[in-house]
Amino acid sequence: MEGSNKWLVLFIVSIGIFMSTLDSSILNIANPTIANDFSVPVDLVQWVSTSYMMVITATLLLFGRLGDRIGNDRVYTGGFLLFAAGSWLCSTVPTLGFLILSRIFQGIGASMLMATGIGIVSNTFPAAERGKALGLTGTVVGIGTMTGPSVGGFLVATWGWPAIFLINVPIGVMGFLMGWKYFPEQPRQQDDKKPFDLPGLLLMMAAVVTLLTILSQYLDEKPVLLVLPMLLLTGFYFYERQSPNPLLDFELLRIPQVLYGSIQAACSYMTQTFPVFLIPFYLEKVLGFLPSQSGLMMTILPVSHSIVAPLAGSLSDRIGPAYLTSLAFLLQGTAHLIFASLQPHPDLVRLGVGLVLMGIGNAMFGSPNNSSILGACPREKAGYAGGFVATIRNLFYALGIATSVGFFTFFLQNNLTAAVPYTQAFTGSLAVVYRIAAAIALLGLVISWETRNIRQPAPPQVESEVNRSV
């Protein structure tokens, strides 16, 4: 593909990435206003976000597989339309229930975008530039996350919360028209007559929805209910092992770069959400910050992420991903230990250093690890591989939030029961949670370092010959 066209393709994919990340970060600002307008408590309004996350996680593999069959370009452009239509519906709903249903519809479009976007980028760019291109998508994620709070605050204050959804409509329509005109035709699997694994899909969806529901609603009261999603996941695994057309591609999991990269992704993405969710509570509940002040402080993380992501992607093209992911885990673990040392009195320098290290570590992990996984996959399976990577990311983001809140609530209640002053109980509970996060990061570091020789990519000329032969 000519140089100008491949960068245009990256731009179109980045539109979808920016739109979806902006939507998520804007919603965090609008949730209190939505709860007030519909006169509902926080535990109900959280389903506006949870339902969206559930449907994305449950359908990513489906749309990744569909992209391999009919072309990732078609699925991605269709995702633009569904996301725009769902956004319009969200802006017009009369009740919270209809808003949640509209978010599910919107989430289907977002899933189509997430499942196929990085596969399109991977297929469009040569091996020597793939990490750089994926690194630039990481910058777009950072920009969308960074601008969301300020844009959301302005839209909600000026036009009300429906405006945060309406802003997606023209962006989605523009992305659809550009993708329809300029996307190159993507590779397709030759065996496209095989039926979809509908029972496997339903089992996986049931397991994901049940797991996230119990973690977000019933973990404190009835933890025994976790047995149900565990049984569903076990049933999904054994069904997939004997299915003639499994949803879970075991051939890809036999590739070392895919297997070890996926395990590391689970470790990294699970702990990336710990500071994003809990630190704002520390700033406002313990230090007495205003929401605008805490939002400004938290901007440090996406700013550092957006600066480093393209550099990490380019560097991974030169030296391979293994050393970068190892350094990423080291930085993330250090950041968690810094967060574990926070006290009831302000120490913004310490907190700022932790957020910078966390942002750099997140950026140094994402694009190098994705490039390693996608570079080891056949081009005609890029859609599935992209959907698989996105499924891991979204699932462990959700599990990270639920796990961090669950542990924090448990230790906070125990400390308060022991008559520990609130601020000390809060920071003490925070310290335990972040030590757990640091231990998970250490596990990721050990895996990354021990597999560093396995995960180095083939030279570009060798990969080119492999791609031409599939």
In brief:
This protein has helices at residues 3-38, 42-45, 47-70, 72-92, 96-124, 127-159, 163-166, 168-182, 198-217, 227-242, 250-253, 256-286, 291-298, 300-319, 322-340, 348-375, 382-417, 422-450, 460-469.
Can you offer a commentary on this structure?
The protein is mostly helical. The protein has 3 domains: 1-186, Growth Hormone, Chain: A (Up-down Bundle), CATH 1.20.1250.20; 197-246; 249-470, Up-down Bundle (Growth Hormone, Chain: A). The protein is 82% helix and 0% strand. It has helices at residues 3-38, 42-45, 47-70, 72-92, 96-124, 127-159, 163-166, 168-182, 198-217, 227-242, 250-253, 256-286, 291-298, 300-319, 322-340, 348-375, 382-417, 422-450, 460-469. Helix 3 (47-70) packs antiparallel against helix 9 and helix 15 (322-340) runs antiparallel to helix 16 (348-375). It is globular, with a radius of gyration of 21 Å. The two termini are 18 Å apart. Residues 458-470 have low confidence and may be disordered.
Main features:
470 residues, mainly alpha, Growth Hormone, Chain: A, 3 domains, 19 helices, 0% strand
Order of helices and strands: HHHHHHHHHHHHHHHHHHH
Cα distance spanning the termini: 18 Å
Question: What is the third-level CATH name, the topology of the largest domain?
Answer: Growth Hormone, Chain: A
Instruction: Count the beta strands.
Output: 0
Fraction in helix:
over 70%
The protein's oligomeric status is: single chain
Calculate Rg over CA atoms: 21 Å
Going by CATH, the architecture of the largest domain would be Up-down Bundle
Q: Specify the structural class.
A: mainly alpha
CATH class of the largest domain: Mainly Alpha
Largest sheet: none
Residue fraction in strands: under 5%
